[in-house]
């Protein structure tokens, strides 16, 4: 489709507006992370600090051992979201392709699981894990994270699989492919934008999950990034400088994931395959 | 035994004999996990709401019937929170959706640096709820807020707006921040869905003489409708249970004007240490969401949103 | 055969003896911050050096959800030996029934005589029984900005509430974004509201902030209406409208920025201010007294308790004793900013009677004027009260409720809570 010049300019303006609205807070976070404490609360507001300091970052990694939390979060989020995405491919596919008696019920159940408020689950879940001796375990937390992501991922995966014509899989199976083979060789690549989106969301959700992590983790060396950042809010106020530095560091992987995943999300792969 | 169960549960109409086995095992992991870690605790949580489990009754927990529910229904704060919740959801989700869809449409065609652009324009979703709450509470501060400073310097307003302490602004502010946060969700999901629309559909529509708007409503929207419906349903459910932003910015104040059911529930836990009472609020939340979902599904199946 | 049996028994005993040689204690703090954690860890390291067979694990949950975590841990008997509890939540934790009555331990403890008089009584909130040993005391004092006030010709801090009010009025000029009083609108302003209101009365019951010496609640006393009105005036005429939403962080922000140079706050604010302001930019003074000639601050405190299901209660007690020795206590308080709990620290360490700490020293030395009063912390509705008072106060400030209506509501609340 040909796009007029007017359209291109309008589009550029709109895209810039979105970008500015998104960027303002992150500019502020980055700025604050380089400020010295005396400038944090200064008024009039200091936009271009005379003194820039890396002390917040060095504090973060030495005094506050941020690298441990970073490692914990990275492993936990990556493994949980890979597992939940994989599981959702299977269940989403099954729900997309087949009709069976309890299908509506199953889908309803998955939606229902999203409706439960965290504070309702707090005491029962904690008791359950405490009885199993699984408090303060990152593995147990990982299982909980898979649980949190599984239902949502399945629902979304189903939505993406539904749109891909069965004919393609059937063609592959006639050629001798097994059903699973067809799933992974034909359907999944075509649904890659959706699957990449699902993975990104699960990863981000796990990366930022605070509530369950604070309750279930006790030892400092098992903490995840959100718990660590939350610790900078104490009775004696909020350590804005270090907190901002922590937020910046925590944002880097997520921005990388987004930028990387967009390659899959915004792919041109789908165009050719659907020509029939 | 398992075979029998499979065949009863999965009354499959087509496909090879091996199909039943296939589906059962594909769905089982997710159902199992969700049942053990969500449904089982939920049932316990609901039972809690009928008891008197609080820190002060710890030695003597017993069944108290509907006492907690009655207590909530006579609390005026509950009704304020309920009313606020309604508006919170409707306004937040509506704006997020429209703006997010807009962003997806704008980003659809490739342009130079789109990848990096995506990384930066989507990052709000990458922040955790509490981080957004305290960050924006600082940005919108009536005295030292960055936003106010800019507004005053640009002469848009003559003096600072008390975004968070002025009852007439507070609600708007929390919704604004929630929208800021939620746009990437819709943008990413819809962008992914938009990618799979075949080019030929547009071409044939154009040949038939359809203009831009017509193409949008007759080709684009129907094709991504299943994604639209799923994301709207999910997002409403999530927003209902999303107190972090509000809690970080106003804690439900000033004077309860930004209190929603979820923050009302948190306050019960923090100040009354009454887990049963809080669970009762949770039951209300679940009930409301279930009723909403039933109506939503009726509505969408009537309007033919595809198999749903 | 007998020999083999004997050998086996001997080996088993030996194995047990060696494997049970390390005692592990789990300890949880409630007022977590990275620097406080470091200080506690240093103290733990010192203790472990003195007791090589003991290992202490410090659990440091984020402050905002610390109590939720502690309640969950205690209610499910998670491995915990030493629990820190703050004053406002003490009753709740005690009600769970998982803290040990410390009287037997205190009876054989020499240093118990060294504790600041009245403090042990203050922490024995439930039925007069001590369930914690205090580790720090907090009390409000007046912080002010001499550099800002000098610009307006104010060279000495106000001694009475009326003086404070007129000083604040004098310097308030919204156009220049200059205000006077650092108002606390949210984040549980109980202390702040009460300090001003009660200063209008001269016969508060020292054991119960909300009662008079004659046993009646004071909410219907006309003097308190005057006090409440003055409190509202502080908000209306000397503080930014935005301060209705100010918690601790915003208060500090405003003080450091100079917007509101008068602030009531606890001693742990000093640590924060030291990093943000130069020494000649801030100072402390005793709280201003009210028209009654008195002011009624309260003791805030935190302390260490021992769990009933701990397998190492005696060793836990050893640690608590170690913590409450002059050297350790002084180190902890200097870094963290709490006031020490031991008399000897005040006597031997000049740090706590000089400079910014002089204000508290003065208040402690003049108990007829600065009457330290207890809150009814043992009341089940205490934490509910904090929220209720905050909400009703905000309604009054927003103009949705009259001061008299608020006082009536408060009267009804406590009448019910005290079962009067």
Task: Write down the overall mean pLDDT of chain A.
Answer: 85
CATH C-level category of chain A: Mainly Alpha
Total helical segments of chain B = 13
Report the helical percentage of chain A: over 70%
Query: Any guess at the CATH architecture of chain A?
Result: Orthogonal Bundle
**Poorly predicted runs of chain B:** 11-18
CATH H-tier superfamily of the largest domain in chain B:
MetI-like
Summarize, please.
The complex is a heterotrimer of chains A (276), B (308) and C (420). Chain A contains 14 helices and two strands; from the N terminus they run ααααααααααααββαα.
Kindly describe this structure.
The complex is a heterotrimer of chains A (276), B (308) and C (420). In chain A, strand 1 and strand 2 form a beta hairpin. With 276 residues, chain A is mostly helical. Chain A has a two-stranded antiparallel sheet. The longest helix of chain A has 32 residues. Chain A has a single domain, classed as MetI-like (MetI-like fold). Chain A is built from 14 helices and 2 strands. Chain B has 308 residues and is mostly helical. Helices cover 70% and strands 0% of the residues of chain B. Chain B contains 13 helices and no strands. The longest helix of chain B has 32 residues. Chain C has 2 domains: 177 residues, Periplasmic binding protein-like II (D-Maltodextrin-Binding Protein, domain 2); 196 residues, Periplasmic binding protein-like II (D-Maltodextrin-Binding Protein, domain 2). In chain C, helix 9 packs across helix 10 and helix 17 runs antiparallel to helix 18. The longest helix of chain C has 18 residues. At the A-B interface, helix 1, helix 4, helix 5, helix 6 and helix 7 of A face helix 2, helix 4, helix 5, helix 6 and helix 8 of B.
